[in-house]
Every structure is written in C-alpha cells, then in structure tokens.
Amino acid sequence: MISGAAFAQSGIPATPTTELYGYYKKGESLETVKFMAEEYEALLARQSFRFLRTNVVSDKDYKLDWSKKYEGSLLQARIHYQFLVPFFKITIEEINVIFSNGDTLYITKNLKDKAVKKQFNSLYEMLVHTLVKLIEPAKTITKEQLREALENIDKIPANHSK
Fold it and tell me: Which of 46, 61, 79, 152 has the fewest CB atoms within 10 Å around its CB?
C-alpha cells in the first residue's frame, strides 16, 4: 500500500533534488511568495552572489544565473523558478565550479559520485532550501516522489483520503 508520503510531504524535503514542487498555504497570495523570492535574491546578493535574470517568461517564471567567486574558483548555477497557482516549482538546471586552473566540475551531471553529491547537497541548502524556508509551503514534493506516485497510482485504494 502506498503511503501519503509518496504524494507529498509537509515542510521541506530532507533529500536534496534537482526539481522541487511546493504547494502554498491556504490563502497565501502570489504577491507574498514573489516578495519572499525577492528577499531571497537580496539575501544571497548580500553573501556575494551575483545573478542575472534570463529566459524571463513573466515576473513569476524566469531563470537566474547565479555566480560566486571562491578563492580563485567560480561557482555557477542556473535555476528555473516558476511561481504558479497553486504551486511553485524550482528546477536546478546546472551547477558547475570552474577552478583557477581552468578545470570545470559539472556538479549536476555527476551526482552519482559521493563527493560531488555532498557538494550538491551543500549548495542545495543554500540555493533552494533557503528560499523554500522563506515561502513556508504547506506541502512539498520532489520529482522522485512524483515519479513514484505516478508509477503507483493504480495501487491507491479507492477510498484514499488526505
């Protein structure tokens, strides 16, 4: 039997993911969520992150190219933010580190490597978790949980309740 956890969880997922969906609290407006996103951008800017808004569909659907210099290396991240009704979606498209010697570590392409995954988890905490904590969603679901739910949809009892 499938538990409700396969469909959504309260709070913020403990396991970092490249794609996260969050459902707003009842009565929360998109204007409030957008304000929290702007606060998040300002918070990271105060921590020496720079960002460029790209691929703007609207003020609620855009990508940010983040960058930050660390001791001769450069961290780069492209994240797609979509603040829709009744949910938001944050997709980490890529995270890379360019080292001072010119070598590049493609973090999102090498998540099976334990050391790379550990680095990704740390960056996830900073680049995604911070924003989600500001929004305080009613529920979140990762792409992995969504996939599991869709694969097991036929196993849900007819009288399944929330």
Answer: 46
